[in-house]
Amino acid sequence: MSQITKLLIANRGEIACRIMSTCQRMDIATIAVHSEADAGAAHVAAADEAVSIGPPPAPQSYLRGDRIIDAAKATGAQAIHPGYGFLAESPDFARSVLEAGLIWIGPSPEIIASMGDKDRARAIAQDAGVPILPGSPRFPVDQLDGLDEAATAIGFPLLVKAACGGGGIGMRRVDRLKDLKGVVTATQSMAERSFGDGTIYLERFVARARHVEVQVFGFGDGRAVHLFDRDCSVQRRYQKIIEEAPAPALSEALREAMQAAAVSLAETVRYAGAGTVEFIYDVDRGEFHFLEMNTRIQVEHPATEMITGVDLIEWQIRQAAGMLDAAGQLAQAPARHAIELRIYAERPEKNFLPAPGTISKINWPSEDDSLRIDHAVRDGDSITPFYDPMIAKLIARGPDRASAIARLSAALAETRIEGVPTNIAFLASVLETPEFRDGELSTDLIARIIPPKKIAGL
């Protein structure tokens, strides 16, 4: 066991503040790192100490693992928590942290590497008995022999996916064979720029799809539990904006099968810590298939925390320190429902284009047992073009889904953010649609219920 008394957070914004709140309760001192653009940021002000690690662009600061490790050593931190994004799923960074004699709060570098390679992760999932979508072998850059044959075998439409991509980045639909090679070339070029690896593979496109994921926690010894499921189908540009737990309108048999598959995968790889196994549910076929495994805390983890009462960050820290006893599987989901939505500085009417600027004034609704707000912004703070433009997450819960929607709608109506355009009106309109209220969710929900002309009028 390793007692952690000082922890460095290799991240910024709301997730850094979220981790700090748990550390403060655990009497753990926190170290913030920041770029020059974030010198006056909320997460810097909330930390016990702060270290500047470089210029505003992420590759010169938040992606500089060497500077982050140097900051940990200089401040006497024993552990590093990566949050999500940036270096959270970098096996090289995780390995460097361990080699520096520090505690890495996450799964092993080997597991991060295995699950970060989408094609390899599919093979591991298949070996664990988890169903996968029909797909192709890997195609590295300039090695496209057999591409047309693989595509024909899968059928159109299909997806071209970056093997090392994630979060909707590096994924493109192709409807005709004659368009395939051009899309593959473009995707490989983008993947090389974004991930340093242009390898792609092909996968069946699911026309009516739901994105359902299972929160798992592994104890590193072949045992794992799930903390139930979430639906993340409401997306724009392949990126989630509304998530809820548990996933609505699933049969208990289907729900239990997904949960069992997720636990099987986590146990097969002897997973340690918090992770999420993501599935695509084919509504027309009534089948679910493995999508990917995220080897980190998720943006949407508060929805799970709101229905279970578990502090996943605390579990992560205790697990990494060897101070967490293996927990038993909760028998059934608590009788409550939680919904999370993400508020962004963006222009929905312009295809959700990011809208950086200075927030002049914020008015949040009052938090209570039914409402949680995760944010790291104050009056006068700037949303810069260097990082993701998410402003906050609102998470509401109730004894049932209808109550959670009502609480979230009321909270959203009380939220005022001035100085930058936001998606608040757009989110409110989604919550009001009959399709959302009836739980008729799918990844194309927004395109189906709110056409571009209507979005432009919000």
General description of the model:
Strand 4, helix 4 (91-99) and strand 5 form a beta-alpha-beta unit. By secondary structure, the chain is of the alpha+beta class. The chain contains 16 helices and 22 strands. Helix 12 (401-414) packs antiparallel against helix 13 (424-432). The strands form six sheets. Strands 13-12-9-10-11-14-21-19 form an eight-stranded antiparallel β-sheet, with helices on both faces. Strands 3-2-1-4-5 form a five-stranded parallel β-sheet. A three-stranded antiparallel β-sheet has the order 7-6-8. The longest helix has 19 residues, at 177-195. The model has no long low-confidence stretch (mean pLDDT 94). The protein folds into three domains: 6-105, Rossmann fold (3-Layer(aba) Sandwich); 134-204, 2-Layer Sandwich (Dna Ligase, domain 1); 209-456, ATP-grasp fold, B domain (D-amino Acid Aminotransferase, Chain A, domain 1). The termini are far apart. Keywords: ATP-binding, Biotin, Ligase, Nucleotide-binding. InterPro entries: ATP-grasp (IPR011761), BC-like_N (IPR005481), Biotin_carboxylase_complex (IPR050856), Biotin_carboxylation_dom (IPR011764), Biotin_COase_C (IPR005482), CPAse_ATP-bd (IPR005479), PreATP-grasp_dom_sf (IPR016185), Rudment_hybrid_motif (IPR011054). This is Acetyl-CoA carboxylase, biotin carboxylase subunit. GO terms for molecular function: ATP binding; ligase activity; metal ion binding. Residues 3-451 form the Biotin carboxylation domain.
